[in-house]
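Researcher: We plan to redesign the surface later, but first we want a full-length starting point. C-alpha cells attached.
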C-alpha cells in the first residue's frame, strides 16, 4: 500500500502533509538517520584531529572528503541503514556500520574501528535530536511564529484607532480599541518567544553512563571532558550537559516543550476571541465564491481556519505536555521509554505548524465591519457609567456609584438621551456637565498605547 492522503494513518502525513512537509527534513526517519550519520562522522573527524596516537598520519584531504560525503547523504544511504537495521535489530549500530562502509570507500579502512569509538547509542541520539530541533526551530517553526506575530502587529497598527465595545464576563464593558486588543496578543507572544529563545539546545556526550569509562581506559592521558565540550559546543553548535547518566536529562527539552505550549495556549486564546468577534458580526470574512460553508445551509461562511488552528494547537499541546512530563523521568541510568516517545516530537511540532498556517489563512481573510462596531457601541450607552461616576467622585458628589447603578440597572435600554437627561439633572457645575456629556461609547476608550514596532526580545 502506498502512502498518500487516502492511506496515511496520521493526518500529519495524510490530509495535512503539504502543510507539515517542511518538518520532514528534520524529524522523519530518514532525517534522523542523516543527523546520526553527521554526528558519527564529525566525531570520527574530531578524533582524527585530536589526534589520537593511532590516528596520526591520516591525510587531511580524506577527512575533508568525508565531510563532503556527509553533506551529500542520499536516500540510498538511508535505505542502506534500514537494511542493516533489519538484519541486526539496532538502529544506531546500523548507522555506525553504514559510516564504516563510507569510511572504507574513502580510503580510511585502517581506522574504521574509531567510528563510534567509546560511545553509547545515546551519545548519538542525544546530539542528533537537539541538532534536528535546533535546525527545525531556526528554519521552519521560529519563522512561522514570527510571521504570525508580524501579521498580528500589522493588524494592530491598522486598527489602532478603531473603537469597539469590550466585554468582561461576556457582558458589555468599558470600550476599548480593536488594535489594542490585538496588540495584547502580540506582546504576550513576544514575551514567550523571548523566553523560548533563551532555552539552550542541550546534548549529552559522555559514554555508556556519562563518565567516559571506555575513553579513559583506552587513553587516560586525554582530557576527554574538554574534548567533549569542544566537540558538542563548538563543532556541533549545541550546549553540552556535563553531568548525565546514559541519557541527556531532557530538562531543557522539557522547558522548550513547555514554552511552546504557553505560546500555543496564547494562540488558542486568540483563535477563540477572533472566532467570537466573527460570531458577533464585528469581523467579516472575505468570501471565496467556490468555497462551501455548509452542506445544508448555502449562506454559511464558517470560521474554519480559526477552528482548525485551535484544534491542532490542542493536539500539539497534548503531545508536548506528555513529552515535557515524561522525558525527564527515567529509571536509574536509563530506560527505553524516551526513545519511542521522542519519535513523536516531530508529530507535536507538525500539528503546531499546521495550526500556525491555518491561523495565518484566517487572519488573511478577516476585515472589520466598522459600521457594526459603531452600532454596537451606540446600543450600549450604559458603558459610560463608569466614567461618569468616577468624575463625580472627583467632584465630591454623594454616592455617585449608587446613583449610576440605579440608573443603569433598571432593565430598560440606556440611550444617549437617557444619559443626557441624567447629567442635566445632576447638582454639579455646568463645566462638569459639559465634561460628562463628552463621554460617549465611541470616545470613552482610555489611553491608546504606543505599539512597539520591533520585537523587544
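Model: Full-length starting sequence:
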Amino acid at each position: 500500500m502506498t502512502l498518500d492522503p487516502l492511506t496515511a494513518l496520521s493526518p500529519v502525513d495524510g490530509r495535512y502533509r503539504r502543510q507539515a512537509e517542511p518538518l520532514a527534513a528534520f524529524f522523519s526517519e530518514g532525517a534522523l538517520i542523516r543527523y546520526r550519520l553527521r554526528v558519527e562522522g564529525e566525531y570520527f573527524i574530531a578524533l582524527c584531529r585530536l589526534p589520537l596516537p593511532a590516528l596520526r598520519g591520516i591525510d587531511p584531504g580524506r577527512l575533508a572528503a568525508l565531510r563532503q560525503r556527509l553533506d551529500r547523504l542520499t536516500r540510498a544511504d538511508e535505505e542502506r541503514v534500514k537494511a542493516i537495521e533489519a538484519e541486526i535489530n539496532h538502529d544506531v549500530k546500523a548507522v555506525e556500520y553504514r559510516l564504516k562502509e563510507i569510511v572504507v570507500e574513502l580510503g580510511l579502512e585502517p581506522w574504521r574501528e574509531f567510528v563510534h569509538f567509546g560511545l553509547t547509542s545515546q551519545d548519538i541520539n542525544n546530539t542528533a535530536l537537539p541538532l534536528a530541533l535546533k535546525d527545525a526551530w531556526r528554519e521552519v517553526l521560529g519563522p512561522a511564529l514570527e510571521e504570525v506575530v508580524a501579521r498580528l502587529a500589522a493588524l494592530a497598527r491598522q486598527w489602532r484607532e478603531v473603537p469597539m465595545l469590550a466585554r468582561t464576563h461576556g457582558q458589555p464593558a468599558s470600550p476599548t480599541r480593536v488594535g489594542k486588543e490585538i496588540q495584547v496578543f502580540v506582546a504576550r507572544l513576544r514575551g514567550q518567544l523571548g523566553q523560548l529563545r533563551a532555552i539552550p539546545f542541550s546534548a549529552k556526550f559522555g559514554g555508556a553512563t556519562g563518565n567516559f569509562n571506555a575513553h579513559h581506559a583506552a587513553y587516560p592521558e586525554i582530557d576527554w571532558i574538554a574534548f567533549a565540550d569542544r566537540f558538542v559546543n563548538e563543532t556541533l553548535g549545541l550546549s553540552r550537559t556535563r553531568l548525565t547518566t546514559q541519557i541527556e536529562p531532557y530538562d531543557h527539552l522539557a522547558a522548550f516543550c513547555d514554552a511552546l505550549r504557553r505560546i500555543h495556549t496564547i494562540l488558542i486564546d486568540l483563535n477563540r476571541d477572533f472566532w467570537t468577534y466573527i460570531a458577533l458580526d464585528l469581523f467579516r470574512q472575505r468570501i471565496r465564491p467556490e468555497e462551501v460553508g455548509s452542506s445544508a445551509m448555502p449562506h454559511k461562511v464558517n470560521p474554519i481556519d480559526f477552528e482548525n488552528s485551535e484544534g491542532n494547537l490542542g493536539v500539539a499541546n497534548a503531545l508536548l505536555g506528555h513529552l515535557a512530563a515524561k522525558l525527564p523521568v527515567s529509571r536509574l541510568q536509563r530506560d527505553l521509554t524516551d526513545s519511542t516517545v521522542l519519535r513523536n516530537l516531530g508529530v507535536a511540532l507538525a500539528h503546531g505548524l499546521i495550526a500556525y498556517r491555518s491561523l495565518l489563512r484566517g487572519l488573511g481573510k478577516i476585515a472589520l465591519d466598522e459600521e457594526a462596531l459603531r452600532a454596537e457601541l451606540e446600543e450600549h450607552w450604559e458603558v459610560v457609567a463608569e466614567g461618569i461616576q468616577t468624575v463625580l467622585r472627583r467632584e465630591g458628589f454623594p454616592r455617585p456609584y449608587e446613583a449610576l447603578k440605579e440608573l443603569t440597572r433598571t432593565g430598560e435600554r440606556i440611550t444617549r438621551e437617557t444619559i443626557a437627561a441624567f447629567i442635566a439633572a445632576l447638582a454639579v457645575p455646568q463645566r462638569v456637565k459639559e465634561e460628562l456629556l463628552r463621554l460617549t461609547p465611541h470616545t470613552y476608550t482610555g489611553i491608546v498605547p504606543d505599539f512597539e514596532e520591533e520585537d523587544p526580545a
